[in-house]
Write a structure and sequence with these properties.
Layout: E1 5-8, E2 15-16, H1 18-31, H2 39-43, H3 50-84, E3 91-92, H4 96-105, E4 109-113, H5 118-127, E5 136-138, H6 151-160, E6 167-171, H7 174-183, E7 186-190, E8 208-210, H8 213-227
Parallel strand pairs: 1-4, 1-6, 4-5, 6-7, 7-8
Antiparallel strand pairs: 2-3
Length: 228
């Protein structure tokens, strides 16, 4: 492929946001006099968003008692807490800053397509000094649909004036690979991300499987070199 853009998922792919997201959940649980959740277990759910974390933290029995409206209110509380502590302990995975720098020096644009609300995604990237550097940022509420629908991927290509075949999309969830594949992009599964023990990334049909964040730089370099 002629690589012209590296597009990434945010949570669990570019940035380890679990410390702040799980921290926000525990602050919410404490506020409601509930026991804290196990951070390691909850971290696996971060890619599924705030609602999944809230349901996990409060448990099925309490969520059934609360009903959808009650859960929705808790999710809004969670998001408000998370926004306050959005980029305290979150950090870019080791090796990915070097990947972004390599892309910038090689005239390869990079961006983020996430299901996270746009405002929160912007807060994370701004807190890490990356927002001004990315060529595109799409959140889960930027368009009427979100991943696994391919529309956000195709919209990004339109904005960047690139063909999907010129883009590599990297993500740590099945929906990421489904969206990228459906849009006609090459895809890479980020195996360092928030992947649950029962998930099977080898069945996602990603073109590439990248085991460590440092491996993404090698992949990008190989794609550029083989295109020349």
């Amino acid at each position: 492929m002629e690589l012209k853009a590296l597009l990434l998922d945010l949570d669990g792919t570019l940035v380890n946001t679990a410390p702040d997201m799980v921290g926000a959940l525990n602050r919410l649980l404490e506020k409601h006099d509930k026991p804290k959740t196990d951070s390691e277990v909850a971290s696996k759910l971060v890619s599924n968003g705030g609602r999944a974390l809230v349901v996990h933290g409060f448990g099925p029995a309490e969520c059934e008692r609360l009903g959808d409206h009650g859960i929705d209110e808790l999710v809004q509380e969670f998001l408000a807490i998370y926004k306050e502590f959005v980029c305290v302990d979150s950090h870019v995975y080791d090796g990915l800053l070097e990947t972004l720098e390599y892309c910038e020096s090689s005239n390869i644009r990079w961006g983020v397509i996430t299901n996270k609300p746009l405002e929160l995604a912007k807060d994370v990237l701004s807190g890490l000094g990356l927002f001004e550097r990315c060529s595109i940022l799409l959140g889960g509420d930027s368009l009427p649909v979100r991943k696994p629908d391919p529309v956000p991927m195709l919209h990004s290509c339109m904005v960047l004036n690139l063909a999907p075949s010129q883009c590599l999309y990297v993500g740590d969830h099945l929906r990421d690979i489904q969206a990228g594949n459906a849009a006609g992009m090459d895809t890479a599964a980020a195996l360092w991300g928030y992947i649950g023990d029962t998930e099977t990334p080898d069945t996602w049909q990603a073109k590439y499987m990248v085991r460590k964040p440092t491996g993404l730089l090698n992949l990008v370099q190989d794609l550029i070199q083989h295109a020349n």
